[in-house]
Design goal:
Blueprint: E1 4-9, E2 27-28, E3 31-32, H1 33-42, E4 47-54, H2 59-68, E5 75-79, H3 84-93, E6 101-106, H4 114-127, E7 129-135, E8 140-143, E9 149-153, E10 159-168, H5 169-181, H6 189-195, E11 201-204, H7 215-228, E12 233-247, E13 251-253, E14 256-258, E15 262-264, H8 272-284, H9 290-293, H10 306-319, E16 322-332, H11 342-353, E17 360-365, H12 371-374, E18 378-389
Parallel strand pairs: 1-4, 1-6, 4-5, 7-11, 16-17
Antiparallel strand pairs: 2-3, 6-10, 7-10, 8-9, 12-15, 12-18, 13-14, 16-18
The structure holds magnesium ion.
Length: 392
Amino acid sequence: MQTATAIIAAGGAGLRMGTSSPKQFSELLGVPILIHTIRAFRKVPAIGAIIVVAPAEHRERTQALLALYQMADHCTVVSGGKLRQDSVRIGLAQVEPDCQLVAVHDGARPLIAPEDIQRCLEAAATYGAAIMAVPMKDTLKAVAADTTIRHTVERESLWQAQTPQVVRTTLLKEAFARADQDSFVGTDEASLLEHGDWPVMVVEGSETNLKITRPDDLRMAEALLMQKQPISELRIGHGFDAHRLVAGRPLILGGMEIPHELGLLGHSDADVLTHALCDAILGACGCGDIGRHFPDSDPQYQGISSIRLLAQVIGLAKAKHFRLHNADITVVAERPKLAPHFPAMQTILAEACRVEPAAINLKASTTEKMGYTGREEGISAHAVVLMASYPT
Ligand code: MG
């Protein structure tokens, strides 16, 4: 196999993300997007060097990030230019003369599969230039300024260009020289080759190689990544809680109000089910208990929705690189009947925990009129969770 250098174009400001810093610093499962992207390239043996083109004002931060993830020795960081073409030109100038292929990749495409990078490299080694692309699936409409459809665009021959875009080093240099000579500006490397009439092969890629542009993309990428990530550690956690039933309080369980003549007494909304779940999660992560994080002496937690506390607990777990794999929760109550409310509770709890509803199992039990739950003096709940860690 020929030797190749990757140029990671991470110069975008990412204004559509609504964040103050560039999108490549946004985290996916606790790890910055750029790091995920570089990891994919490091898994390809033919890639000998990686050049990261960062915005000039974020060059040092990028360098520090690479050092943090122990990648500084394998990557060179350079300051980018105004346009993508300028940035790639700067990167290209850093490529060693004996390197045969250059693979340009968007820093914001972290889900690229190493096998797909390899396929592009092989195609470019044979044909001179190859890019990853996917055939159009949707029907395309040409739309007028007043948002009425002009006509349907023939999509038979249309593909969506992605990256990597791999070109023989000498050819890419030639294409840049030609573009500069003609003051031609292209939005990707393939367009520079097209401008000079050099053939470019298309390698069919995957829709999962998405470019993270909007906050929605980030959530989708996170879900895709979770399926791919090997689980490196599993931790079990257990939680128990009980609250007294009194008149004049709403009964809140699993984040919803249940019609009943009595409610649970507590500093927050006294959602005993959610408290048991929080404690189980904290337990699995070695983070103590709910009282330590949200003391009932603190007025800011007075009457607070426990679902909000749960979302914060999930945030704490995420900071320790743990995510909820599944939870099994039993509520012990003589009355009212809870099973009809379980599907709605499941949805609320799953959303707070950022998992599928199927990952949350709810059960109800009575104690056959024995003890404090049997006498309807209170309601208790037990929760067991399995937390999975993802690699940092
Ligand atoms: Mg409690």
